[in-house]
Amino acid sequence: MKIAILDDYQDAVRGLDCFPLLDGHEVKVFSNTARGLGQLAIRLAPFDVLVLIRERSSFNRALLSKLPNLKLISQTGKVSGHIDVASATELGIAIAEGIGSPTAPAELTWALIMAAQRKIVPYAQHLQEGLWQTSSIEPARNTLGTVLKGRTLAIWGYGKIGQLIAGYGRAFGMTILVWGSEASRAAAVAAGDTAAVSRAAFFEQADVLSLHLRLSETTRGLVTAEDLARMKPNSLFVNTSRAELVAEGALEAALQQGRPGAAALDVFTDEPLPPGAPLLLLPNVLATPHLGYVERDSYELYFRYALQNIVDFAQHQCTRLLNPEVLQHARQAPQER
């Protein structure tokens, strides 16, 4: 089969131990991102199988309908709203899912918290320039970092990643405050953490606030300007989940107004983030290029399942299809697309 692996920005997949699973197939790895329906359709039209790295590319009905040879989309991890599953099924395109791990994104979140609280990046950058113990060349911003012990770590979302973050916070002597669904708050209390008495109190009491929610129509824009305005002037807002969880423009405005005092971000509404993006121009923002899952062990896990799903699909033995009904649909009407 003709297989395309999309958006491998670092051309890393060919070096994975699992890549030989595709021996015998014609494989093309794209390390740059195509923009626009027409460009993507031309690029991807020849392929039987597409391998998607998380949500780096989206597939709506308009695009799927222009891919006449496509039989399978093999997703690294789970599908998360970036594929029109109903349209894919109607068009006879199978979708295979894999699994992921919370470890790498949780560790990246904690690394961002530590780096932001102790101002590690600006200190290191200024040291390269010959400036000793300088966090900013602006006197008003040349301030000290702070420890985490004794402070409040507020976590919105107490799933696998949120629970890991809570464990890290406890190990550092932090008080854990949780907001989210009733089930999340109950789980937090059962684990010995504290459920916030209200959404307002959650934002008001946070020294460090970290989001760990899935993006859906109910969570899009969930964090509002009013929420952010309740945060302390010296607090840190952390988002390694999805940028769209925050109302459009609310975080930029809040940071300029000083509540919260800083942000550590790994996700953005436009990725790859273009040079000169407003968030990159703010001195109180620590930003990384969506590295949450971009790590060797995670890639091996994600791609081992994604590539094995292709092998199994070719042998009519794939058990990880999100839409298994498509197999019967495709057999009955292979010419409809």
Automatic annotation (TrEMBL):
GO molecular function: NAD binding; oxidoreductase activity, acting on the CH-OH group of donors, NAD or NADP as acceptor
InterPro entries: D-2-hydroxyacid_DH, D-isomer_2_OHA_DH_cat_dom, D-isomer_DH_NAD-bd, NAD(P)-bd_dom_sf
Designated name of the protein: D-2-hydroxyacid dehydrogenase family protein
Swiss-Prot/TrEMBL keywords: NAD, Oxidoreductase
CDD domains xrefs: PGDH_like_1
SUPFAM superfamilies from the UniProt entry: Formate/glycerate dehydrogenase catalytic domain-like (SSF52283), NAD(P)-binding Rossmann-fold domains (SSF51735)
Membrane-traversing stretches: none
Family (UniProt): Belongs to the D-isomer specific 2-hydroxyacid dehydrogenase family.
Lineage: Bacteria, Pseudomonadati, Pseudomonadota, Betaproteobacteria, Burkholderiales
PANTHER family, alphabetized: D-ISOMER SPECIFIC 2-HYDROXYACID DEHYDROGENASE FAMILY PROTEIN (AFU_ORTHOLOGUE AFUA_6G10090)
Highest taxon of source: Bacteria
Residue ranges constituting the D-isomer specific 2-hydroxyacid dehydrogenase catalytic domain according to the UniProt record: 23-318
The species this protein was found in: Janthinobacterium tructae
Residue ranges annotated for the D-isomer specific 2-hydroxyacid dehydrogenase NAD-binding domain, each copy included: 111-292
